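Re: that chain you flagged

S.,

Sorry for the slow reply, it's been a week of failed gels. I finally had a moment to sit down with the sequence you sent. For the record, here it is as I used it:
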Amino acid sequence: MRFTRKAIAACLLPLTIAACTSTEKPQTVSSVKPAEKAPAPFPSTYKAYPGVATAIRNVTIYDGEGGKIDNGVVFMSGGKISSVGGPDTAIPADIAVFDGTGKFVTPGIIDIHSHLGDYPTPSVEAHSDGNEATSPTTPEVWAEHSVWPQDPGFSRALTNGGVTSLQILPGSANLMGGRSVVLKNVYSRTIQGMKFPGAPYGLKMACGENPKRVYGSKGRMPSTRMGNLAVNRQTWIKAQEYRKKRDSGKEFTRDLGMETLAGVLDGEISIQNHCYRADEMALVLDMAKEFGYKVSTFHHAVESYKIADLLRDNGVCSAVWADWWGFKMEAYDAIPENAAILQNSGACVIIHSDDENQIQRLNQEAAKAQADGRRMGIQIPDAEVIKWLTYNPAKALGISDKTGSLKPGKMADVVLWNGNPLSVYSRPEMVWIDGALMYDAKDPKRRPVSDFELGQPGEGDVK
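Prediction finished late last night. Pasting the structure tokens below so you have them in one place:
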């Protein structure tokens, strides 16, 4: 859009945000034909840090897909997993070898719901960049354009939580909050240098209290749950019309928001949907069928246990907390057995954080959810619980062919724990990302430190 001088002047005055919004008819900036698919405008420039061929032996292995190997061997070379097996697995000569007696190895932990970088620490207003709360639908915004690569939270997630990949989402004020981005958890000068190569984008959506509260308080739609669905459906209708124009072979005017929604309808962008109540999740599934898209994951999903069979049959994951409860009305029916009931029903379970502190102990959160299931008679093996933190989030993000489990040919994203990772007393001892040793608890020099922290109290602290 092009603004007149009068409109620009109005934008500079207080309380005139509406003057800056797209209420006037947009002008055609450029027209493109469907055959002229543009290259990605912000491509990943990620390059793995240098590593060396490495083996870990005499270690208990959880492979991320539900398998367990006692006294096993993990061998990584060239940034990839080369082999995983029992004590007879061959280890080449003249490589780095670590003895893991009494220790455990898992794939790198993946957090499917994080706001690191777009709600970074220090948590000050100047850093609050996660919600474009100016319209109930903002599919045109991209979370990566808010992410601050120097957020000290990234290193804390790596060293304390073993997190090697994470999805950064916009906040949940809007029905359609914008595109998410998947990152490798390494420091880089630019966000492009952190972007997980080949990872699909996601669209953050939200239902329930947040959108109706934010926009109802402004005296505009939606102010009710029926308003939420109506605005969503009307927007999807517009997306269908845009997609039809795009595919018509005729010239059309680009629209960033509609491009994202058309990408969802094409199956190229996944839906990551903030939703608490079971009845609303069922409505969203019906809406998805109406418009021909698929929901990858319901996030928070505190009432998923009520519709576990429906989620299982539709192939939808639930990214949940272990025991967050009662902090608002739609969280009132949350129960700590949620994850266990989902698992017992054959549905996909993921443990997520949505928090800069909890991302540092997702292993403990998974253990709590496992214990809550045990108390109600549902026994879930440790190796299966690790899947909630590794393979399942990778699958939901569309990157399970690259990471999420210890299989030959996959990225060597590996964590060596000093004890059982489902124990409150265990923590990462070493972390590799693409075969590069990024953290070693015994080597203070092998601890990533944000530029922002240099020279400040607590620099690189991992306690």
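What I noticed first: The first strand starts at residue 31 and ends at 32.

Talk soon,
D.
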